[in-house]
Structures are given as C-alpha cells and as structure tokens.
Amino acid sequence: MNLTAEEQEIFDGKHGETLAKVMRTVVSYGDMFGAKRLVPLDKPVHLVTSFGVTMLKPLYDIMEELTESELKVKMPFTVDPRPFDNNLDNNFIESLLFRLVYGKQKKYEQQLFAVGLKDKKAFSCTCYMPEVGNVPEKGDIIAWAESSAVAYANSVIGARSNRTSAIIDLFCGILGKTPEFGLLTDEGRKADWIVIVETDTLPPAQILGSAIGIKVQEDVPYIKGLGKLLKNLSKAQINDYLKDLGAAAASNGAVGLFHVEGITPEAKESGQNLIKKEASEYVINDNEIRQIKNSYPILWKNKNSEPDLCFIGCPHLSLQQLEEWTNSLHNSLKQKGMKRLKIKTILTAAPDVIDKFKQNEKMYTRLKETGAFLSAACALMALTNPLYKKKKVITNSNKLRTYTTARYYNDSEILNLLTE
Amino acid sequence: MSIFKGRPIIPGNYKGECLVSRNGVNMLATFRKSILTKSKKAVCMDQNNTDLYKKVISDKIICLPRTIGSTTGGIVIQTAAGMGIMPPALLFSEHIDPLAAAGVLVTDIWSGKKVITIDGLGHDFLEEVKDGMILEIKEDGTVILNIANK
Questions:
Q1: Which chain B positions have a beta carbon within 8 Å of A146's beta carbon?
Q2: Of all residues in chain A, what percent carry a pLDDT higher than 90?
Q3: Rounded mean pLDDT of chain B?
Q4: Residues near A366 by Cβ (< 8 Å), separated by ≥ 6?
Q5: pLDDT band at B150 (very low <50, low <70, confident <90, very high)
Q6: Is A98 in CB contact (< 8 Å) with chain B?
Q7: Residue A123, pLDDT score
Q8: Could you tell me the CA-to-CA distances from A26 to A111, A123, A131, A140, A217 in Å, in that order?
Q9: What's the gap in Å between the CA of A25 and the closest CA on chain B?
C-alpha cells in the first residue's frame, strides 16, 4: 500500500507505539485485499462490539492500551445496542445472571466513552435512523461493522462501506481513514448474481433475505422482479423492508451490498450496467420461499411447546415499524375481544427512536395497554442469559433465529400467536 | 498424496487432522456457546453449518471457503485464541474474507498468538480434502494432503 508521508511516520512509530500498531494492523488488513491506499472517512464509524462479556479479555486489553495512549476517534461514533435492559420485568435471578454474563459492561462502556462514543443513547444497530443521527449520504466513505447496518448503508443509502470487522472499525475511526478495496470501489460494487423474484405476492423480507444470503454468500446480488411487488408501499416502508431483507442476507450469508432494480440508488442510476458479464442467476418463486422457511431447524427440546417470550426488532425497529406493530397488536386484540397479549413480548428500537415514539402519547399508551415491553436492548445478546435460553422464544427476525434457539415466524403468524 | 499452494497470511508449520466445511463458517454462531460457557474445547454450534455442527473443532485444522455472518467474527477469533480453543489453522479455498483477516491479524499483532492461516488454496483443494485427513502445512503456504492416513 502506498502511504503518505504522515501515514508512514505513524506506521514507523514517530507518533507513539500504540498508534503505530493501529496503523500497522489497518495497513496489513488492507494489503491482504490489495488496497493501494487509505482514504479519508466522511462520516463516523459504527462499532459492532457493544457488550461487556467477561470472556472478551483480549478486547478490553486493546481498549486499555488505546486509552492509556489517549487515542480517540476523529468523529464521535455509534455502537450496537446494549445487551440487556433492567426494565423488562426480569426476575431477580434473571437480572443477576445478566450482571454475571455481562460483568464487564460498565468498564467497557467507560472504555468506549474514553475513545469517543457519541453519547449515552448511541447504542443501536440502526444508527442510520434519522433520530439516531449517524446518517451517511450517497457516495460517503464509511467504515461500519454491524452487518445489517453495512447492508443498509451500502444498498439503501448508496454510501460505501466494507463489512468492516470488529476492532478494525475502531482503528479506522482513530486513523480517520480506511483501506480502499472491495465495496469501496466501483468494480467491487458490481453484481455477481442476478436474483429473479417470481413470487405471486411480496415475500417476507426476512425469508427473501435469508434465501439470497444462503445462495450468494458474500457476493453482490442484483434483484429483479421485486420493484413491482413493492409498488404499494411508501418510501419509508420500502426502506424498512430492505432493512430487514439486508439483515437476513448479511446473517444467513455475508451480503454487504444488494441492488434492487428500480429501487436502490445505484440500480436507479446505472441499471443493468451494475451486473457483471459472468453473473450467475438464481430464481426465487413461492416454492423456494416455502422450502427455505421449512428448512430452518426447530431447536426447542419439545417442538410443540407453547412459546413464552417473543422478540420483535432485530435489527431495531424504525419509528414507522413501532407504530405499525402497535396498531397491529391493538387492532388484533380488539378484534378478538382480548385485553393483553398472550405471550410476554418485547419490541426493540434505538433509544432515540423510543424517545420519539413516546412523544406520541396516544400511540405509547396504546402499546402499553397491550402489555408489550419496549426496550433498546439487543435481542440477540439478551438471549445469552442462561435463563432466557431455556425459554421458548419466538421471533420475526431471521438474524435472531440464526444465532439463538429462537423460532422464526412471519409477522402475520407472530400476530396470531400473540393474540389467538 | 496431493499438494496445494496458497498464500500464507499467518505463516507456520503444522501437521494434524482436519475438518471440512463446504459452506462459509459463521464464527459467532460456531463459537458463541463455547465462549460464553468458558468451555475448554470448542464445539461448533452453528445450526446452519451441517458439516461442522456439534463437532469438536478446537484441535482440528479447519478447511473452508470463507467465513460469513456477524462482523464480530474477528473478535470471536481473537477471544477463542486467547482461551486456547481456536483451531490451530484455517485453510481457505477462496480469498480470505475481511472478518477472518481481521481476526487472525489482530490475534497476531495485539495478542501475540498465531492461528496459521493460508488462503487461495483453490476450489480443487476443498473438493479433495475430507474430514479426518492428516494435513501437513508448510510456512510457505504449501498444504500436503496425506490421503493414505484417511
């Protein structure tokens, strides 16, 4: 990699040994992918590692070394959600176990603030929501790590980020630069796959994303046939759909960018010029959607057990999704003559989104009346509580299904289970 | 005997038994339980990975196309290495992915521990290698498949 004189000085240790290690790590990382140079970041980094699990000692050691050397990021950053929430009606043992599993949480958050965390509300996997404020523009160079956020920033916004690994995200933030390769380049953003959606109706975003992720793995897909199925949705609803599709594709595979014909910014701009000549083809019809859903193993010991916990919001819900779920739950209960949801239900969203939601008193009251809980915690991390793991958890998140024993259901199925 | 040549990312010499994943390995899903339970050995708990699911992987060379899934993958590798439950070597048939690259690099530079890593061994390598084979890894990126020991 060609370094500027200033970068070379840092590399050689003239600005301290720790900063030199940061630079050497990022340069070696870039070298592995044939990066020719470092390019400046246009917006803050977003970190994936938000949880103080006791076993992550090597991470805390690095953070300590950075803070002892007084190294900070160039622009205040955001980070993934906190792993637990004490306001979720947890019993004493559940709360105790959370504190044990995440015994380093307080110390780690102090370390995050020391290296430049934005503020106490900067904990969300959807940092790109306007309420949260880490919002890049089309063409901006960023170095984000949360896989669902990377997919959203690249695909829906048209910003440019690689699927930056944990800790490399922070190192890039400290340098204010990132190696130029992969999804930062025009060539790297071209599609290796043409995905043709031939379903009769709009497929669930979480299943479509899963199917695409399993098939294309880390490649870039160009999706045809989806635009017409999205035509009755508002712009905000399309963005929410693509958010959930991207999260499933990123966790079931390693998709960092997808193009949707006529919908996403680069597909609108360049159309089929984005497709590589040798691109493979994958047709998704209703049968394929059914087969993918049926292929998910059920990891509950007793497959016929009644569910006892439901998580909605992985990735975090947008304000619009929170309002839609509130209305759906309210209306379904009313229709069936019920007062409260049958299963303990937790809806998760960014702290700033929750604050905005609560400003609408009518809506907030309506949600509280259903008995649902509202939390800014990370559903995935919450399920690491050994007691939660014994629970029969249901979810509409394919990402949560992938990493835990939670059982996946479509939105309409979840609604039925909660209000039947 | 078959010989393959790749790019040494973290070079080293090693001889041992291997396990093969035909699809990408999700490091978080694979190691999450072993790390959280402070296990002395790593058992793959990725329900999507039918090749490695429920197999002990900590003392085996892992042959794979790439890693996939959560971008915490790099920290997972560093943590597993710190706990002594990381496989001794990762042999990639494809170009290494950013998550694995960060993991083995940070483990080397910041923790002083080596996970021998070779990438670009090619599609034929993953076709030919089978669970239980004894592999010999050379620091120049050569991998020798000793079929006689299968």
A1: 71
A2: 89
A3: 94
A4: A326, A327, A330
A5: very low
A6: no
A7: 98
A8: 21, 25, 31, 20, 25
A9: 7
Q: In this structure, which CATH number among 3.40.1090, 3.30.499, 3.40.50, 3.30.110 belongs to the domain A5-184?
A: 3.30.499
User: Is the pLDDT score of B119 beyond 90?
Assistant: yes
Q: How many CB atoms within 10 Å of residue B90?
A: 25
Judging contacts by C-beta atoms under 8 Å, the chain A residues touching residue B66 are 217-218, 254
The answer for A 23-62 residues in CB contact with B (under 8 A) is: 24-25, 28-29, 32-33, 48-49, 53, 55-59, 61-62
Question: Model's pTM, two decimal places?
Answer: 0.93
Which residue's structure tokens are 């947890």?
A90
Residue pair B133/B11 in contact (Cβ under 8 Å)? The answer is no
Complex-level ipTM: 0.91
Q: pLDDT digits over A2-26, tens only?
A: 999 999 999 999 999 999 999 999 9
Q: How many domains does chain B have?
A: 1
**Contacts with A, B 36-55, CB within 8 Å:** 36, 38, 47-48
Q: A402 and chain B: CB distance < 8 Å anywhere?
A: yes
Contact at CB, A402 and B38, closer than 8 angstroms = no
| Domain span including residue B20 | 2-149
d(CA A56, CA A255): 26
